[in-house]
Amino acid sequence: MMIKKKNIRLVLLLSIFVCVLANCSINTPQSFESSLSNSNNSSSSEKEAITSDHSSNISTNSDHFSDNEKYIVGKRVFDNDYNNCKNPEATLKIDEFPDLEFSYKQLDSCYSIESLGITFRYCYSFYIADINQDGFLDICYSYAKGSGTVNFGIAIYDIHNNTALFEKEERGTFDYLFDLDDDGCLLIEELNYNEDIPHLLNKALRFLKNPNNELLFEEFSFESKLKGFLCGAGRGDRNQYKVSILLIHVGTNDRHELSANEILAEGIVDFTYSVEKYEELSEGSPDFNLILNFKRKITTNITVSIRDMKQTIRVSVE
Fold first, then answer.
1. Which helix or strand (DSSP H or E) is residue 154 part of?
2. Which residues, 6 or more positions from 199, have their beta carbon under 8 angstroms from its beta carbon?
3. Residue 108 in contact with residue 12, Cβ under 8 Å?
4. Please, which pLDDT band fits residue 226 given cuts at 50, 70 and 90?
5. What is the model's pLDDT at position 49?
6. DSSP code of residue 221
7. Which residues on neighbouring strands pair with residue 310, listed in sequence order?
8. What pairs with residue 176 in β-bridges?
9. CA-CA to 279 of 20 to 30 Å: which in 59, 88, 103, 295?
10. Domains, the chain, ranges and CATH?
11. pTM
């Protein structure tokens, strides 16, 4: 059974169908206030630099992070909106930080860098970018707070100087997430907090490069974006398996912008499938039902693909 729409992100943390990836809240963070507008900005504070032989002293002198003259370019390490069926990795390795190991602690639901004494709690997504433009990459992460219906906030941590740069959270008013635009520039998405309508975009902001290395933003407009999808699976009729698909949108209430022929199922050769659009728009209803019909008893993995996103589900027909 699919959950109510506002809990679509919570399901990614708590549901049996979706992975629980820890959300990031730094131990004793230094928070920088910002209205996330063009006229009210926050700048990073002066910090004691880590010596050049420190393992986290990784320069951003690469084409990827310097190929835009106006906006700060980012890279997605993981994001539950796009990778919502993956289990937390016991050890997370980031190519740009080859000497650092991000360890997942199941008991505390957190990633930590033990060599630096840093803990990222309840992490929903990890992005990297040179936010303070000092030539070294920073960790940009989103996190969830609360029980039941949760609020999402964002924070930025300067790995090179081992200090917090920025944090933004407005409980009961807005949710905040990181993302990338089509050119790879880092985005902050400000979503209206609404128990019935998830992922309703209020505005999106790009980080502006500037000579003073301040946190400056410019509003960025897009109509909608399909980020990911949730799968809830269960038995149907004889030799049949039903997969309920709930889409994750940003910036639109149109739950049916996707066509049924964009949903594909791949696996063993002896099954057929059909896709039904769920016409009712009541709370908790899926957008599509994927009906898998098997010719024999079997337990196997089936990959569900929607555009460039994939999930692998385990099905068992007895």
1. strand 151-158
2. 8, 191, 227, 248, 249, 250, 251
3. no
4. confident
5. 34
6. -
7. 305
8. 190
9. 295
10. 5-222 (no CATH), 226-317 (2.60.40.10)
11. 0.73
On the question of pLDDT at 140 being above 70, the answer is yes
Summarised one tens digit per residue, pLDDT across range 61-86 is 456 777 788 999 999 988 888 876 56
DSSP code, position 44: P
Instruction: Give the C-alpha separation, 265 to 218, whole Å.
Output: 40
**Residue (of 243, 292, 241) closest to 270 by Cα position:** 292
Residue 233 has what pLDDT? 79
Amino acid at 110: C
From residue 82, give the alpha-carbon distance in Å to each of 128, 138, 248: 16, 21, 9
- Among 94-103, 195-204, 209-218, 251-260, name the one with the lowest average pLDDT: 251-260
Burial of 90 (0-12, 13-18, 19+ CB in 10 A): exposed
Predicted pLDDT at 284: 65
Summarised one tens digit per residue, pLDDT across range 275-295 is 988 776 666 678 899 999 888
**191 or 258, which is more confident:** 191
What value, to the nearest 5°, has the Cα angle with vertex 314 and ends 309 and 315?
A: 120
What own/partner pairs with CB < 8 Å and gap ≥ 24 does 50-53 have? 50/160, 50/161, 50/162
Query: What gap in Å lies between CA 289 and CA 165, rounded to an integer?
Result: 44
Structure tokens at 154: 């964002």
Main-chain phi, psi angles of 102, to 5 degrees: -95, 110
**Cβ-based burial of 168 (10 A; exposed 0-12, middle 13-18, buried ≥19):** buried
Q: From the CB of residue 194, how many other CB atoms can be counted at a distance below 10 Å? A: 12
